[in-house]
Design a protein that fits this description.
heterodimer, A: 233 residues, mainly alpha, 8 helices, globular, disordered N terminus, B: 245 residues
Chain lengths: 233, 245
Amino acid sequence: MKSFEGSVFDVTLMSRILRAPADVAADCRDDRDASAMARNALIAIVVGSLLFGAAVGSWHGGAQTFFAAGKLPIVMLATLVVCAPAFYAVSAVFHRPWSARSVLSLMLVSGARFSLVLLAATPPLWLLINLGASYDLSKLAASFAYGLAGLAALTLLVRGLGDGPGKRSMIALMMAIFLLVGAQTSWMLRPYLGTPGVQHVVLFTREREGGLVYQLWKSVEHVVDPARPGDRP
Amino acid sequence: MTLTDLAVLYGIAGVACSIAVLRKEHGSGSGTAIWSAIATVPLWPLWAPFVLATPRTRERPRHPPRESASAGHPAEASDRAQSPRSATTRSADGARARIEVALDESVKAVAGTPMSQVFSRQVAQRISAEVAAVAVRMEELGSLASSPGLDPAASAARVAELSRAGAPERTIATARLQHESLLRLEKLRATDGEALDELADLLEALRAQLLVARYAGSPSDGTGAIVSEVWARLEGLGAAFEGGA
């Protein structure tokens, strides 16, 4: 079902991904218009994460805006690429022997939902940064948007799995895989916001910074108690 | 193996997939094939299955092929005309035709009114697609019924014959199992046919409600309920399809 026949991007599909995830998930399972869905989902993933990345990078400004805008779509796509075989295998193990096309389209539309939520979160984040939000607050706000987007994607994925044996185990396993791979991929390609107190912009950081969870915890500490001495310059 | 080695291997696989995509879409002769091939290089694990793999989607012809009653021996043609498959196909076609007309007229009835949000052309297309899928399933089930060795009447006769001949219990049990399975197939087909008929009735009622709403100038109270019922029936059809597929 396309409202803009022949157009490159199907806005109606995006609307269905947001408003009728169960419908879209059923279409994925049944391999209906899978190619068109995959193409549109890929476009949505790239555009949504690119703009969100630009908003995140605008905290530092300059080249960092472009670096973050370029890196975030790579993080998203790399996560999906790495997770795709795992998702296929896990669904087969849990009595869902779907075709690769079905599994991939389900994963891609979930990714598209993720990116659409990121896209929706972009203006508030941009506004927050423009109003002079601190490094830590911006980082937490971006992480919150990521979490929200993850929940939105998860709801579509859960509906796509349908009822059947091992549904909860499968969801837990898939979440663990996506979280691990996503976190590691994004950590490898950091920084996105830039480094506080450092004027020059780097494409990749190779310093030891204690891991993603540690850094998020440090940000929470700094937001709660700005006077707290930390390991940040 | 370093990250660079992995990236090189990934790239080689991407280029190979890209060449395969170009070869497969050689006939299309459009820029789409080139864009598709370019996208395949970095995204081959995500994109190549959609371009290279054959979709397992069920064909949904708007007018399923019908067997020609005039083909072959007249007696065979007559048999086929009386077969469950032909009866089912006729029934499914009749219900589908009613549904298509009701959908078309319903969409026309709500055009330019606030009810067009409730019952848009997209909604009608979706219902039509679901109905087409059920019709294809009925066609498949009908084809099975007319296949050699899958006729319930023949399997019933076989069970009776084995019982009369005093065949071993194990042989009779196998033949009985075969007969019961074929009866279940027949029941599935009948259930689908009934569901389509009920859906057609419902959509005709919806069409009438929408016409009332259009000419009365205000949405009728029963319209929302019927639309909900239509979706519930469609979900039921989908569930039957999933269960049977």
